[in-house]
């Protein structure tokens, strides 16, 4: 039987007061012992009662999904997953990873994220590519939390093993585009975010590979919730926006498969269109040709994209509304009076923040065009009322979007409890926020105070959730390492 105590088992045995620090207490660290942890969500990583812990996870997932009537695609529907995990660290790592990164869907409230993975893994755990991809991400997750080098090395070994299997599967058209192989590619990218920490890392190669596989798979990627198609398109758009890249023909074919009646798909299509607008802006600026930098079609295109995003926001306020609170967050009394958002789950939050990032990117690209055009053209060309007011309007919109992203941080890291989230905090909340915070750090319109808040949030996500990519991103924008991005981050790398 698992007994609840206030301190760790080592301190209790030694009859000492435990400091309850995370992930392990300081007393254990000073005497060189592994802290067994505490009887809460973190015990999945540290305690030895493996069968009981695994049962707890299953009960927790059942409680979440008890009122969820899921209808997975036919390719994912089969018998219940069987537990063939051995009684060791592997079970701990997988259970913790599933708890940290899987979001269960709630029909009519919020979509899930990778919620098909436990079933898929249960049925195909013998598949070395999928199994090693799951273990790579799971071991990386627990290694970052425990700071155990041996587990980090295990994660790396699983990563390379899965990568070799995925490469082998690509030679077989049927295996290349299977749920198993595509999910493995997604997990390899997730591993890179948790464990690698390099800005120009392999996750972007995985994104490119996922785009190719999804393109080969075609219309069979459709399904409920955030589908493999939507996940692939999101990753592609984030990469293109961050590095100012034009979509490839495969990217375009993928987006043509999206169901434009879906709220998530419409947001992804907005991201796609804005990525093109942004890439065109910096490509035209580099050309130095005034007629390409600024003309009436540019403004018309901007207004069209602006209207698309306004329509999405109007619909989202009805379908996935969020609440605003001014409560004190955690142990920070200075947060009193600050506004914080409460969402209907982490996926709903990430949709809103992707929308805000799209608005910032769109507005920033327009301002860049306008600034260069004014410096190289006659002043009278920009003296109409609309053009004079445009920079102020666009700048104000950016500041509103930045403010709202920052207001979502407390929810993402678990400082604000919500009836729509179970077992908070979850790593996935912080993981989803990283790209959005980087958008703020690249935005010259954001104030220094806002950028400081974004950096602080990245540092916290990296340390609290063990995501090294967040730490590396914060360091880049603090000048601690040289950024590989161009000085104008929207331009295409040369």
UniProtKB/TrEMBL annotation:
Keywords: Nucleus
Domain Zn(2)-C6 fungal-type: 7-35
CDD domains in UniProt: GAL4
Gene3D superfamilies: Zn(2)-C6 fungal-type DNA-binding domain
Top-level taxon: Eukaryota
GO molecular function: DNA-binding transcription factor activity, RNA polymerase II-specific; zinc ion binding
Pfam families hit by this protein: Zn_clus
Protein name: Zn(2)-C6 fungal-type domain-containing protein
Organism field: Hyaloscypha hepaticicola
């Amino acid at each position: 039987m698992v007994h609840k105590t206030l301190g760790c088992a080592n301190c209790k045995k030694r009859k000492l007061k435990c400091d309850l620090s995370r992930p392990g207490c300081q007393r254990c660290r000073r005497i060189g012992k592994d802290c067994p942890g505490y009887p809460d969500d973190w015990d999945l990583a540290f305690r030895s009662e493996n069968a009981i812990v695994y049962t707890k996870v299953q009960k927790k997932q059942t409680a979440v999904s008890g009122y969820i009537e899921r209808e997975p695609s036919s390719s994912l529907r089969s018998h219940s997953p069987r537990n063939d995990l051995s009684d060791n660290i592997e079970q701990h790592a997988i259970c913790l990873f599933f708890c940290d990164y899987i979001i269960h869907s709630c029909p009519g409230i919020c979509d899930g994220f990778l919620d098909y993975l436990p079933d898929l893994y249960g049925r195909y755990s013998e598949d070395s590519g999928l199994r090693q991809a799951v273990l790579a991400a799971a071991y990386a997750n627990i290694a970052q939390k425990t700071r155990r080098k041996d587990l980090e090395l295990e994660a790396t070994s699983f990563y390379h093993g899965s990568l070799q299997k995925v490469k082998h599967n690509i030679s077989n058209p049927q295996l290349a585009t299977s749920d198993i192989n595509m999910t493995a590619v997604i997990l390899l990218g997730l591993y890179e975010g948790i464990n690698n920490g390099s800005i120009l890392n392999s996750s972007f190669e995985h994104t490119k590979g996922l785009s190719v596989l999804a393109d080969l798979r075609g219309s069979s990627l459709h399904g409920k919730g955030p589908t493999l198609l939507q996940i692939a398109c999101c990753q592609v758009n984030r990469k293109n926006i961050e590095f100012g890249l034009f979509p490839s023909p495969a990217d375009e074919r993928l987006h043509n498969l999206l169901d434009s009646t879906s709220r998530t798909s419409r947001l992804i299509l907005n991201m796609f269109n804005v990525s093109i607008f942004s890439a065109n802006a910096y490509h035209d600026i580099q050309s130095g040709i005034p007629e390409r930098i600024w003309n009436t079609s540019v403004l018309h295109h901007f207004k069209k994209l602006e209207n698309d995003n306004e329509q999405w926001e109007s619909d989202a306020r009805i379908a996935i509304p969020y609440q605003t609170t001014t409560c004190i967050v955690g142990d920070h009394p200075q947060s009193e009076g600050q506004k914080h958002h409460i969402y209907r789950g982490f996926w709903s939050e990430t949709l809103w923040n992707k929308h805000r990032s799209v608005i910032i990117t769109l507005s920033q690209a327009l301002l860049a065009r306008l600034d260069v055009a004014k410096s190289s053209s006659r002043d009278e060309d920009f003296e109409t009322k609309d053009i004079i007011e445009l920079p102020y309007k666009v700048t104000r919109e950016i500041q509103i979007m930045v403010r709202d992203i920052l207001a979502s941080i407390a929810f993402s890291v678990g400082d604000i409890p919500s009836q729509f989230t179970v077992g908070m905090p979850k790593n996935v909340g912080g993981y989803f926020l990283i790209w959005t915070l980087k958008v703020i750090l690249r935005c010259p319109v954001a104030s220094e105070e806002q950028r400081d808040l974004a950096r602080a949030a990245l540092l916290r996500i990296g340390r609290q959730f063990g995501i090294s990519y967040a730490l590396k991103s914060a360091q880049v924008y603090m000048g601690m390492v040289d950024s590989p991005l161009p000085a104008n981050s929207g331009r295409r790398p040369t």
